[in-house]
Design brief:
2 copies of one chain form a homodimer. By secondary structure, chain A is an alpha/beta fold. Chain A contains 10 helices and 10 strands. Chain A has a 7-stranded mixed sheet. In chain A, strands 1-3-2 form a 3-stranded antiparallel sheet. In chain A, a hairpin with a 3-residue loop joins β2 and β3. In chain A, α2 packs across α3, α2 packs antiparallel against α5 and α3 crosses α4. The first copy, chain A, is globular, with a radius of gyration of 21 Å. Chains A and B meet through α2, α6, β9 and α10 of A and α1, α5, β9 and α9 of B. Chain A binds a DNA duplex through α2, α4 and β2.
Chain lengths: ~220, ~220
DNA sequence: GCCGTTTTGTTCTCGCGTTCACAAACTCCT
DNA sequence: AGGAGTTTGTGAACGCGAGAACAAAACGGC
């Protein structure tokens, strides 16, 4: 067995690179579906919408999977990235909060096709219990602990209103969830060792509005 | 006396700061709802989930809206940030692609309450035409040009399948949309001067999966 | 087997963003 | 009024990421 010492663990991939790997993965899948078997860094970079130098640098953190003078084997690179991200295995996921957004998430086919399996839909509102969404029955939020331990769930998705988010997060963390994707419009606090990513629909629009306003101001000032 | 010429466009706010302003805005709204009239940078920072030094530096780009030894007036600061972002006015928005996600977006109350008004829902599928979602009727995609010019729409939301996204973006740009929020899982190309922000649900999960896998590897190596 | 061409992997430099640390400024108490 | 105690606003140091440029390596033709 290889002594997995700090030198091996030292293969730390920068966060900015990690965030782009899924983009490369998708671009490679597209290329593969189109029948492309080999591509240059330039090809892949334009398919992913990034600079080719940046792409090569990103890939170099994973290892030397390309061939100089030739490029990258699409299937091989795709597998290597998938393995690095961890989506060659199946990740069980729990979604809490089956309102409008929860419905959309439960129905989103992109999860399943990318290595994620929705094992349970939970909602605190008894009215929603029993409803079947995307082939999965909505169950009471109180079943959280049982489901997490039963399916060994590490990733939880919060799609509740803002007020409920912190409570849900606390319960998740308490029963062993260590990664949370938070769609609720509120900041949630978690202990060290738990990763939280936040997706906020209205924040994205507000950022666009800021730039839009600036464009308008520049026009006003010029006129 | 500083000549604060309000048409001073030289005041460029760093992109990273712009992305956090909506978070501060939300935190201030929460504080306001709780009846808080004044807060320190420490208070606001913890409510927003950031470092207080970073918060102060961010706010300093907008101007000196605090009082040393006292803190910030919640209402006043809230208005200043809202004005800076541009959400004191109302932004008309068009959503294209009324599938699962489009439904959720159309129903999302956070848009309206934050200065955005959904003026039209468009879908290329005739089956969906006429359906009323959140009080707005679904209309054919071909009405895009008319709606954009009629309501002076600057911001478009794409919630279509990946294959349609580029076409939709092209049509939007052609008729004057200059900011696009893209939920479709594909990279879209737009000319200079058009802003695109991308929200990708499965990419966020994949990033979590990567870190989750690393946690598991560390445990394996230790055990 | 050797040379030119192509493309990767990597080094270097630069700019942005984060954080620390502290002076300036305001309030409150005596 | 003056000093002690707070809290803001900002200058400076530091670290990370982006992009350019180049050396190393593979292929193909002869």
């Amino acid at each position: 067995m290889t002594a997995r010492t700090s030198s091996e663990t030292a293969r730390e991939i920068p966060e900015a690179t990690v965030a782009r790997l899924p983009v490369y993965l998708r671009a490679l899948t597209t290329l593969s579906d189109e029948g492309t078997s080999t591509c240059s860094s330039e090809d892949l970079a334009s398919a992913a919408g990034v600079n080719s130098a940046k792409l090569r640098k990103d890939l170099s953190y994973l290892g030397s999977y390309g061939t100089r003078g030739v490029g990258y084997d699409v299937e091989y690179l795709r597998y290597q990235i998938a393995r690095e991200i961890g989506v060659t295995q199946d990740w069980p996921v729990v979604i809490v909060g089956i309102g409008n957004l929860g419905h959309a998430l439960a129905n989103y086919s992109g999860f399943r096709s990318r290595g994620f399996r929705v094992v349970a839909l939970l909602d605190a509102d008894p009215v929603r219990e029993g409803e079947v969404v995307a082939g999965v029955e909505v169950r009471p939020f109180d079943h959280l602990e049982q489901i997490v331990s039963e399916h060994d769930v590490a990733i939880g998705v919060i799609a509740t209103p803002a007020l409920a988010a912190q409570d849900v997060a606390d319960r998740m963390v308490a029963c062993g969830v260590t990664s949370i994707l938070n769609f609720a419009p509120s900041v949630i606090a978690v202990p060290d060792g738990v990763d939280v990513r936040k997706v906020d629909l209205s924040i994205e629009l507000q950022i666009l509005a800021y730039h839009e306003q600036r464009k308008a101001q520049v026009l006003d000032g010029a006129g």
